Amino acid sequence: MKQEMLINVRQPEECRIAVVENGLLEELYVERTAHNNYVGNIYKGVIVNIESSIQAAFVDFGIGRNGFLHISDVESCYFRQVPGWAEKEAGRNSRDDRNTRNSPADDGANYNRPRFKPPIQEVFRRGDEVLIQVIKEGIGHKGPTLSTYISIPGRYLVLMPSLGRVGISRKIEDESLRRKLRDMMSGLQPPKGLGFIVRTAGADRTQKELSRDLAYLMRLWKVIVRRLNKMPSPIDIYEESDMITRTIRDIFSSEIDSIIIDEPAAFERAKEFLQFVMPRHINRLQLYEGKEPIFHKFGIDKEISRINHRRVPLKGGGSLVIDQTEALVAIDVNSGSFRSEDNAEETAYQMNLIAAKEIARQIRLRDLGGVIVNDFIDMKKEIHRRNVERTLRDAIRRDRAKTKILRTSPFGLIEMTRQRVRPSLKRSVYQECPCCHGGGVVKSPESMALEVFRALVLASQHPNIAKIRVILADDVVEYLNNKKRIELATIEHEGNVEIVIRAQPDVWPEHLEIECFDVSNKPIPFTIH
User: Going from the N-terminus, what domains does the chain have, and what CATH number goes with each?
Assistant: First the structure.
């Protein structure tokens, strides 16, 4: 299997990174330079408001938009001034199931979060300073989501100051390898009081490579502490790396055969980063010097243009229909012309297996988040339903975002959630249609004609109106002139008014403009609603 990472930064306004497997687009990351990306950045902020009804605080951290900090994302060091908190937490912990807490799969992902949380109004006051990290971009009218659980990623390790111990990524499941990594980290003698997680990328690394990453993170942490102590709030303390460095750090592995970049300055930055963290892979970095755009050369632009289509064709004649709403995403599987033997159950099963793999790919490419409901074709056999679930879980495994998949419901639905860190690709690239306001439909000429008639009847009853001018889209005017001449004449006669209907080109289908005048042609204010 051939894997390539293609990086397109020839246009300074946008950076696009694609991961391609055997010519098929598997991962896509897009970032616009005009859109500030705050996720991963660390700030020293100030509490500006506390909402006890939702147990959250709003924090000014210097970007002109307040962030949202929920009590569940507040670290226990902020609770120490709350009377009786330590005793309650100690009592709660003593009742916890130790086997569950100390399971071998534990990687510190819970950050040693306390079980008991005091009310947020007892933890913070307005004007309090707080060290926060942005964990989710603001979406729509919502501000960025913040956390006081700081994490700073390196290539092989993640520094988590609040963890206070060494953990291993849950994705590293081999118990002997987990023990080996713990022993290697113990040999490095990480500073007491700080926590580290060994990332999946560090599973096959030497102690020397882990040591280099540890030293890098420690230097970075010292700089952060120094800025934290010296700088007044609100102020940025640490900013995440640029998208190219970030993606190579998080995505690149020995399975990727080459990294191809189409811009010399970006190539040099990537080379410098690889030289520092992965010197043995420096030969996989290539500068693309062709005149044809890199994504066009590799056939990626054509795939990207289809990413946000509502209907996704599947192998064999089936399709997916993907609808994104404010709160959730609905994905419907259609069999179309797909047939497997002469058996409806087998046809549904084979179609669902194909669809499960493509659903995982589409979710990843479109960066869909929140609640996702997958409506598979109904299957009667329990073994088929379980196999489809397993196929979906296996396909989603390569996704870096946190996901949770439920079992098939009695209605044949597989519900899942996916971590939403930033707006989906569709919301980042497209804007809401000013005509349909995101609904995808507009009124038909007949519906608009009925609305016009209601407005004309209302205006004709006004004692001072003698002339009504209506400006509409071409299709609506054509409908009125061809099918509603008699009705228009009736309104003119009964209301003793003159009605003039005009078409205006290049207006949206629901355009309706009404101007009213008296007998001396003086305008009279008139509103429809």
Answer: 3-36+244-301 (3.30.420.60), 42-239 (2.40.50.140), 310-429 (no CATH), 445-524 (3.40.1260.20)
